[in-house]
Amino acid sequence: MAGFKNPDRLLDSNSNATTHTVTIFRMKYHPAQLNVKKGDTVVWINKDFVPHDVTEATNKKWTSKPLKQGEKWYRVITEDINYYCDLHKVMKGVITIIK
């Protein structure tokens, strides 16, 4: 098909990206501090018995839906992030981009 880019390449635009996992358990994010490279993906997995969300802290630019036990939420990281659970404001996390 002339004029079309390789569809596999479109799906894998950042082949050096890594996926990092943050587990939500016992009213905490584990790990609470995470270093990633720009373009990496973070997946939050709720293993707690109550719902939690992930909310950007500085300007509330984004928030996940409330995650029930076993649910996941993904975000590609493009900047340093401070975040918290809007349902349980004592829960906090930090993601820092490293070079």
From TrEMBL:
Superkingdom per UniProt: Bacteria
The keyword Cell membrane appears for this protein: no
Boundaries of every Blue (type 1) copper domain copy: 21-96
UniProt KW keywords: Copper, Metal-binding
Keyword Zinc part of the UniProt annotation: no
Pfam families, per the entry: Copper-bind
Classification via SUPFAM superfamilies: Cupredoxins
GO terms of molecular function: copper ion binding; electron transfer activity
This protein's name: Blue (type 1) copper domain-containing protein
